[in-house]
Amino acid sequence: MIEIEDEAYGKFMGMVELCPQIRVLDIDEAVVMDGATMAVRIREAILQLRAEHLLRRKFDYAWLKVAMESMDDMPSFDSAQKYLDYLNVELQLDDLPCESSISKMMDTARGKLFDWTFSDTSDAKETTRRNNIVKRFFNLMKGWK
Questions:
Q1: Residue 109 burial by CB count (10 A; 0-12/13-18/19+): exposed, middle or buried?
Q2: For the chain, what percentages of helix, strand and coil (3-state, to nearest 5) are there?
């Protein structure tokens, strides 16, 4: 059993993933969820989206940026690059898209959160898929509250 401060949880779990000789046998999820910082909660939600193969395309991260910025209690970013820096440095996520793909795609979302349309596609299935990414992200975030 290890007690980890909220700010160090994401970094610690990232280090554990790099060392195959260490196994996490149990996590007291009630303690983790109640005390988790926003950054840890966002990181864990994104990792879950990855595990569920919902972030199929690199530009899917754009929908998370637009969605987070639409909520008062979520982080906001001045630019796509600052968002990517947050994901990479603060959340220690890798395999991220380039700045131009985020910038280009976030401008395509139109309408109301969870019911967006997209100027780059008229495919109803793709529109639903993109909206479902955001819905699932917020459902994961609610589970931490």
A1: buried
A2: 60, 5, 35
Residue range(s) defining the domain that contains residue 86: 6-142
| Spatial distance between the Cα atoms of 43 and 32, rounded to a whole number of angstroms | 13
Name the pTM for this structure. 0.73
d(CA 10, CA 123): 37
Instruction: For residues 83 and 79, give the distance between their C-alpha atoms in angstroms, rounded to a whole number.
Output: 6
Joined together, the tokens standing for residue 58 give 């690199």
Run of H or E residues at 103: helix 99-106
| Alpha carbon distances (Å) from 52 to 56, 67, 132 | 10, 19, 12
User: In this structure, is residue 31 part of a structural domain?
Assistant: yes
In this structure, is residue 84 part of a structural domain?
yes
| Digit-coded pLDDT (tens) for 21-40 | 776 665 554 444 433 578 88
Calculate the dihedral angle through the C-alpha atoms of 49, 53, 54, 56, rounding to the nearest 10 degrees. 120
What one-letter code names the amino acid at 15?
M
**Sequence letter at residue 45:** A
Q: What's the total number of domains in the chain?
A: 1
